[in-house]
User: Fold this.
Amino acid sequence: MKPAPFEYHRPATVGEAAEMLVALGDDAKVLAGGQSLVPLLSMRLAVVSHLIDIGRLDDLTGIERRDGALWVGAGTTEAAVGSSAEVASAVPLLAAATPFIGHLQIRNRGTVGGSIAHADPAAEYPAVALALDAEMEAVSHRGPRIIPAADFFTGLWSTALDQDELLVGIRLPVWTGRSGFAVREIARRHGDFAIAGAAVGVELDADDRVRRSAIALFGLGSTPLRATAAELEARGRTVAEISADELGRLAVTDLDSVPSDMHGPATYRTRVGAAMVARAWTAASNEAGNG
Amino acid sequence: MGEVPVQVTVNGRIMTRTVEPRLTLADFLRERCQLTGTHLGCEHGACGACTVLVDGAAVRSCLMFAVQADGTEVTTVEGIAAPDGELSPVQSALRSCHGLQCGFCTPGFVITITALLRDNPDPSEEEIRDGLSGNLCRCTGYQGILQAVRQAAELLK
Assistant:
């Protein structure tokens, strides 16, 4: 349970971190809060020659409105997100997802960028980013780049970030109007990764018709997934006309890579996923209707 | 692989050491500072026995390298009681409520409860359970531990 030896680097600026990523190449890994990476190193499921610790880069922390979106620095801790009034009012879905992440001690160290760059398919923040069409800000020695969430999650623990790119921030769209948001998940114990879960956003017009709908699934494939068919099914209809159970079933209809493990076979996870979509939809649309 | 100098203030004392980067904060405290009150159960972030305060925040010291703690202030279970040995309200409540059996998980619970009640002096039942969810007691003595949190909250008022 001890990591293999590695060299430690602590850049003072984002630019220096980008230079290190080029110089050290494939043998280097970025260390943020370490709440996923350190256990992987300790169990020697991952072995690296170099760790680049971005934990002291002040440019990577913060929560602020920028150009109509909410910018969250990649190095911002999950605890800071969870206690932020700005997040709660601007991007309630991000706030709703936060208590599901690990435990207090994990959220005090774990970061938004770390969770998204690690890209665990059962994690909450990647699903929230995907549901809301967030944009990822990346930096390399070539300069900055924006990657839409829809293009970001490319496979199991894999992202569109190049080896020499650093995730520096997330831009989350701010929904206005009569909107509601909810996250629902089932885990064996609170704080564990979800067996299956759903993150849902709903915006209603003055007649209670769905103007905007966003449904993301997690734990149900090799990446978080958008339930596009279910989103489209809901759009333009009134809340009363929509069966949440029907929407849940539709959301999981086309899944083709649902994992099976000791916590449950794919058929079970799929049923749980449908139920989570239905429950999150009901909670989100009720909240929107009361808004 | 090169060793790195670190300076950490542990329970008010400045500790200057040279460490391998792979040394966790938990092993740094136990083996390089001789503070063995911080216990290591799982060493991969599941059990919470190694919880310490880093700049006031409760964290798992097995999921942090000592080099990451360079320049920080760390409080371990050894730093919770008064200098004359008088138990803190959290420690005294754990004793009087039988909130420990074998005692292995206790240092982590002491730190977690101390941080919990500092940030939320009057927690609800649900907030207590949520706040303690990151600490496991393999003796399963949770009822006594929960009672100790309630009693400590009263003592601290």
User: Anything to note?
Assistant: The beta strands of chain B are 4-10, 13-19, 51-54, 57-60, 73-75.
